[in-house]
Specification:
Layout (H helix, E strand, L loop, with lengths): L9 E6 L2 E6 L10 H16 L5 E6 L4 E3 L4 H11 L23 E5 L2 E3 L1 H7 L3 E5 L3 E3 L13 H8 L2 H8 L5 E2 H7 L4 E3 L4 H13 L3 H14 L5 H4 L6 H7 L2 H11 L10
Parallel strand pairs: 2-3, 3-5, 4-6, 5-7, 6-8, 7-10
Antiparallel strand pairs: 1-2, 8-9
Helix pairs in contact: 4-5, 8-10
């Protein structure tokens, strides 16, 4: 639990089963440098291990940006001083983009600009709720870089390929409404209602068994790239599915339905 506290560059809030993590560098549009990534990595390590926390929400401080991505000023200064590249933790940019074993659901509440690595953090979440002021892009080629924190892979898997290539090969900015039409945004709401809407989605997830939710996420993500349906449907190969099948929740759900009451989920 020690990592679940405000850091120098991040804020955390725990409300019941929900953890909200805020990238807190509004003066630089919540750009991410290695210290942000390290703080977020520790936070999400603690989130993954805490049985009392079932859902995470990620957002940015202020009204301008979710995250403008890689802190290129810090990047350039480090290269000039040492010749080294900024290093992310093994969990990836923002402590999330390489985190392929987190079965708890994550919601990105995108309150403004989500560019480059900022967009990659959002793409690493399961649901994207966007303010109508949000804008998305993978503009790395415009500054001689590439979207190396999963953006090239995730965007091409989440929307039609030609649409993804149209974004990635131009670096163009996509407003929230277009992101919704393309399919990488789950919902768009007026800016003032963003966090309320993210919480509404979190509450809908909380109505479900957390064991079922984790099983669903794990099976979906691990079977995405398996082209053989017969193989991908061997659900007993997925540990979270096995755990869910053998859980107290799997007994409680049908029992509550039969008794016409709300189930009391334990996550066990």
């Amino acid at each position: 639990m020690s990592a679940l506290k405000n850091g120098e560059f991040t804020k955390v809030d725990v409300d019941g089963r929900i953890l909200t993590v805020t990238i807190n560098r509004p003066d630089v549009m919540n750009a991410v440098h290695p210290m942000v990534s390290q703080e977020m990595s520790a936070i999400f390590d603690a989130f993954a291990e805490d049985p009392e926390l079932w859902i995470g929400i990620v957002t940015g401080a202020g009204d301008r940006a979710f995250s403008a991505g890689n802190d290129l000023k810090y990047h350039a200064e480090l290269r000039a001083k040492s010749g080294a590249r900024p290093a992310s933790p093994t969990s990836g940019f923002g402590g999330l983009t390489n985190r392929h074993d987190l079965d708890k659901p994550l919601i990105a509440a995108v309150n403004g600009v989500a560019m480059g690595g900022g967009f990659e953090i959002a793409l690493a979440c399961d649901i994207i709720i966007a303010s109508d002021k949000a804008r998305f892009a993978l503009p790395e080629p415009r500054v001689g870089l590439s979207a190396g924190a999963g953006g090239m892979q995730r965007l091409a898997r989440q929307i039609p390929l030609k649409k993804a290539m149209g974004m990635m090969l131009t670096g163009r900015h996509v407003p929230a409404a277009e992101g919704y039409e393309l399919g990488f945004v789950t919902a768009v709401v007026p800016h003032a209602e963003l966090m309320k809407e993210a919480r509404r989605w979190a509450d809908m997830i909380l109505e479900c068994s957390p064991m079922s939710i984790r099983a669903t996420k794990q099976v979906v993500m691990r079977s995405l790239d398996n082209p053989i349906m017969e193989v991908s449907m061997k659900n007993m190969r997925y540990p979270a599915y096995v755990a869910h099948r053998n859980s107290e929740d799997a007994i409680e759900g049908p029992k509550a339905f039969a008794e016409k009451r709300k189930p009391k989920w334990t996550g066990r």
